Amino acid sequence: MEKPFLRDAPCALCPRECGVVRLPETGSGYCRMGTDAVVARAALHFWEEPCISGAGGTGAVFFSGCTLRCAYCQNAGISHAGFGRRLGAAELAAVFRRLVEEEGAETLSLITPTHFLPAVLDALSLYKPPVPVVYNCGGYERAETVRALDGAVDVWLPDLKYHAPRLSALLSGAADYFERASGAIREMCRLSGPPVYNERGVMTKGTLVRHLVLPGCTGDSARVLEWVREGLPEGTPVSLMAQYTPQPGCRVPGMGRRLRASEYARVSGLMRELGLPGYLQAPEAADAAFTPAFDLTGLPGEEREKTEENPG
Ligand code: SF4
What we know:
CATH architecture: Alpha-Beta Barrel
Number of strands: 11
Shape: globular
Strand order of the largest sheet: 3-1-2-4-5-6-8-7
Largest sheet: 8 strands, mixed
CATH topology: TIM Barrel
Bound molecules: iron/sulfur cluster
CATH class: Alpha Beta
CATH superfamily: Aldolase class I
Order of helices and strands: EHEHEHEHEHEHHEEEHEHE
Radius of gyration: 18 Å
């Protein structure tokens, strides 16, 4: 299932292709993380799309660090600051097992795992869950990396955040976001095939594309949805998210307000016009109360540590 380049040093796991040699505990690439997995929370989560959470919840494993670090990220404490606990492969596999076998998770969600892929694959080789493995990522992936995960991932849950390079450069420091994400998501759809659901309505195979509508950016959202209609297989579901929440640390002009109901209505109307299946989100979701506590819940050991913020 795994291609050798995943363990190459210098690191080229994601489109940043930083070319740095990462050590187990530290890294000087864009993601600022070493190669050991760092996790901020591992617990049942009930607020994903119904086909991901199911009735029993998804076992959500939140990895620390990020290859995008969006300016408005609502999980900045872990994605930017890197808070979390380092886990070895056996510890991570034990976390997966507990979520599935003791807590009854209907799926296992790996959230922002790309920069730790070798460590995650090691854990999955020790424990391959009997429930679907969901790869929840920002969409900014190398197609080669996606291909290397064939057989390890059952359900792809990528964001498709932006269409315009100017916007992705401003908000995520990645002018090539759409070029890379669109290629990666095409590859995900090719690998997964059309969505398959079990008798409980949980997706067991497939790709579900998420898009968060940003304030003042409905035109870009329209271009994203039009590309999904033209560029992905018919029937690929979309989850259109309304939960944008202004973050105190985000200084980008225009991003300091919530999404207007009229903005979401415009984009959701286009989604219907285009005949895209999927999910719309209730406006109440734009509430910080839906952001889980990143407090090491569900991780082994009593020790709570803050990982070093390695210089980028
Ligand atoms: S995973 Fe991290 S170090 Fe490796 S290429 Fe991506 S951002 Fe750079």
